[in-house]
Q: What sequence folds into this?
């Protein structure tokens, strides 16, 4: 039975009920081995409750609009709205080694394309590979993203039904990225989907992963996603995510990365869509010599809201992290950035730098930036900086005085602001795509 709870029962009861309804299905389809993880997760979600403005990590984000919705499970009539025509605009084609397509959180083999340049990597649906490669999946599932203080991550761990799984063998070099495309669509009532992905890069290997989230206009879809990435010793992994969900969608996602000795990991998130979005990153540097590069570029307009919350955990000495987040806020929209860096006792010679910059395009736009440093070692270099401002009047005047129209001058300055993050994206095929989307938005 689902544990009883008195905290926020009116808000979380529907999710607890969904867990009860799905238990027998999970037991019958061969996935019973991860039921203990699901059970711990739903218990933790019940204990944490639904966040409110009184919850410190959520104090700038109002969840009333999400809490008011009654969600249904996706059905075949919803998935039927997605075909090749709806998938095509999001594909990267020959630029990637594989494209896994998920419709409303479920793997769609008919729309997916897995090529032959995978160097022994195992690529497919997490629900299928959890059975076919149980020992390898079991070793990492739930190990890279701690859910103890994160209610929606716990909810994902309890209710996920499918997602992508990529297992890269030690020493393999995957020359092209692996791309996961997530499309949501509802034919009627609001839907909730819980994709969960596992990306394991073996010792000395290298690979790139791209995630794209999009969907069709219509009834709201609540996407509550989790991505776990394990990077082995001396391995190199690069991750990029593009979130461009429809304006009525809700998008919550957590990235958990566990980085072993001398691993190099870079991740960059582009948040361009959804009515309400929450992006979390939890990066754990668990051995010496790790290099981490964590970046984000978020664009919010209208009355939308985007909240980015990052945690970098320096647990061992001689590691470095670089973090740069930029947020462009237009209309009456609002943005939040909270960046937490933890340097544990004994993590000497840590070198950590964090910067956050917000650009407000109207007087009604708002931005909250909260750098947080917790340092328990004395031989470290840790810096942070946060700015929030508007377009530079002198630069605008200079461009206008050269005969450049106001709209074009504005686009030039916005592009210059965004370029610091966009230029950090090492995956060229995606860099061009995102540059085009930004030009569409502001050009």
A:
């Amino acid at each position: 039975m689902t544990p009883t709870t008195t905290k926020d029962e009116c808000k979380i009861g529907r999710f607890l009920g969904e867990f009860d309804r799905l238990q027998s299905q999970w037991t019958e389809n061969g996935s019973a081995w991860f039921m203990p993880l699901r059970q711990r997760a739903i218990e933790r979600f019940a204990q944490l409750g639904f966040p409110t403005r009184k919850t410190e990590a959520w104090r700038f984000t109002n969840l009333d609009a999400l809490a008011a919705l009654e969600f249904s499970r996706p059905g075949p009539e919803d998935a039927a709205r997605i075909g090749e025509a709806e998938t095509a605009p999001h594909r990267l084609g020959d630029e990637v080694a594989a494209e896994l397509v998920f419709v409303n959180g479920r793997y769609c083999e008919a729309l997916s394309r897995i090529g032959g340049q995978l160097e022994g990597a195992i690529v497919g649906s997490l629900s299928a590979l959890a059975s076919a490669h149980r020992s390898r999946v079991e070793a990492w599932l739930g190990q890279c993203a701690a859910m103890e203080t994160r209610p929606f991550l716990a909810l994902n761990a309890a209710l996920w039904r499918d997602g992508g799984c990529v297992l890269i063998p030690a020493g393999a070099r995957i020359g092209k990225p692996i791309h996961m495309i997530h499309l949501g669509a509802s034919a009627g009532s609001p839907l909730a989907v819980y994709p969960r992905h596992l990306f394991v890069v073996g010792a000395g290997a290298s690979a790139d992963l791209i995630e794209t989230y999009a969907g069709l206009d219509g009834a709201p879809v609540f996407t509550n996603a989790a991505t776990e990435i394990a990077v082995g010793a001396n391995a190199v992994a690069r991750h990029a995510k593009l979130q461009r969900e429809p304006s009525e969608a809700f998008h919550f996602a957590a990235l958990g990365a566990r980085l072993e000795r001398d691993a190099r990991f870079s991740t960059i998130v582009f948040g361009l869509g959804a009515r309400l979005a929450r992006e979390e990153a939890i990066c754990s540097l668990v051995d010496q010599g790790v290099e981490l590069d964590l970046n984000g570029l978020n664009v919010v307009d209208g009355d939308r809201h985007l909240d980015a919350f990052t945690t970098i955990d320096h647990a061992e000495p001689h590691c470095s992290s670089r973090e740069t987040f930029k947020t462009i806020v237009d209309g009456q929209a609002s943005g939040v950035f909270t960046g937490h860096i933890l340097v544990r006792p004994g993590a000497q010679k840590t070198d950590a730098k964090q910067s956050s910059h917000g650009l407000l395009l109207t007087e009604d736009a708002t931005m909250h930036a909260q750098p947080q440093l917790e340092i328990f070692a004395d031989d470290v270099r840790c810096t942070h900086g946060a700015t929030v401002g508007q377009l530079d009047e002198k630069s605008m005047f200079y461009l206008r005085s050269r005969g450049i129209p106001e709209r074009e001058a504005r686009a030039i300055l916005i592009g210059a602001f965004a370029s610091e993050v966009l230029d950090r994206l090492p995956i060229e095929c995606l860099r061009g795509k995102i540059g085009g989307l930004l030009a569409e938005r502001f050009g």
